[in-house]
């Protein structure tokens, strides 16, 4: 591990601890050159499936994009950050458990809509109206009847 202060290549692990949940390893390190200490964190890298967009291009799964669109739909709604985190966790678990290497963006959109419907109906309607590109009021009425 390279020292963030002097960029020296050799550092020594002084202390190692597990996080409370056990999914992150915290290490205190000391630089052999400048003798400064710093902390590093290790966590397992989980490979989520690539997203296949409507035009056929592929992109890496980006949780921040999904969170941003959910947050936009949930704007000024009484939903806590913990509820959003739990929804994100459920979606990522479903994708990981599917075992798929690729997932169509339409399926990802449906997962987001399912989670929004579960936590806030108004946010669900907001997201669905943009996602499904409603063009008239009758489509809104039908969506609201379905809820």
Description:
By secondary structure, the protein is of the alpha+beta class. The chain folds into two domains: 11-43; 50-146. The chain has helices at residues 63-73, 81-98, 105-119, 121-131, 137-146; strands at 11-18, 24-31, 37-43, 50-52, 58-59, 102-104. The strands form two sheets. The chain has a three-stranded antiparallel β-sheet with strand order 1-2-3, with no helix packed on it. A hairpin with a 5-residue loop joins strand 4 and strand 5. Helix 1 packs across helix 4 (121-131), helix 2 packs antiparallel against helix 3 (105-119) and helix 3 (105-119) runs antiparallel to helix 4. It starts with 10 loop residues before the first strand and ends with a helix. The mean pLDDT is 89.
Secondary-structure blueprint:
Layout: E1 11-18, E2 24-31, E3 37-43, E4 50-52, E5 58-59, H1 63-73, H2 81-98, E6 102-104, H3 105-119, H4 121-131, H5 137-146
Helix pairs in contact: 1-4, 2-3, 3-4
């Amino acid at each position: 591990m390279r020292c963030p202060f002097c960029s020296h290549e050799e550092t020594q692990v002084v202390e190692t601890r597990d996080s409370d949940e056990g999914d992150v390893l915290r290490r205190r390190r000391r630089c052999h050159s400048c003798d400064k200490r710093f902390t590093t964190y290790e966590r397992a890298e989980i490979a989520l499936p690539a997203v296949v967009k409507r035009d056929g291009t592929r992109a890496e799964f980006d949780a921040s994009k999904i969170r941003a669109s959910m947050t936009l739909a949930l704007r000024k709604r009484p939903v806590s950050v913990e509820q959003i985190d739990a929804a994100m966790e459920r979606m990522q678990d479903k994708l990981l458990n599917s075992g798929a290497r690729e997932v169509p963006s339409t399926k990802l959109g449906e997962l987001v809509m399912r989670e929004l419907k579960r936590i806030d109906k108004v946010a669900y309607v907001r997201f669905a109206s943009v996602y499904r590109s409603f063009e008239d009021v009758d489509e809104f009425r039908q969506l609201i009847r379905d809820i």
